[in-house]
Fold:
Amino acid sequence: MSQPLDIIIVEKLGNLKQLSIKDYKEEELFKKCGFKKSEDFIKQHEWKVKTEGKKYIITVYGKTDGRANNENKYDFPPPIDSTLFFGNCAIIAKLKDENKITNLSLELWNKIYEKLFGGFEDLAATAKEDEEEIDELESIPAEKKTKNGYLKDGFVVDSSDTEEEIVCSDEESDEIKEDSNEDEDEDEEDDIDELEDIGSELSEESYDYDSDEEINFKNQL
Structure:
């Protein structure tokens, strides 16, 4: 009598279910996934992975052809992470060295799954490292830091320094305004003189022109 075999059923909504099969037959896996026909239900991919001192061959069975709204939402590891499956899928484990089917529990699959993805970052460990990280500003003298505790540089300054710069700039701006007003007055006087000179030249030219016309007219008579 054969021993029951544990496999993983990947439901179309993305949920995982551990299923124990009394009499395992590869050609009948489609039934365990809820399909009425074996058509298009085939081996899709194999991963070779070593974990807990054992070498496994992990095989995925499923369909890549199906009806709309029946897509499997589970995120499979590469290289089938972008493959679109329909309905339920089955995951089977085999011991490579012994070349025989073996039990695949949810716990074992989760370890293999993490390994196939290259491992996941432990957020708790990362947060602890951030807390233990040394603050470089603690070793900086107080006179080199702003009131808010930031390092003084070309970008961060105290608000008092900024106010002084603003006051100085206001005084300088008043002087600039006075100088500019004087320059404007001088420019206006120069413009008036230039206009008077231009007007006198124009009047002389027009007078000369009228005199020439009068002489020519008398000569013709």
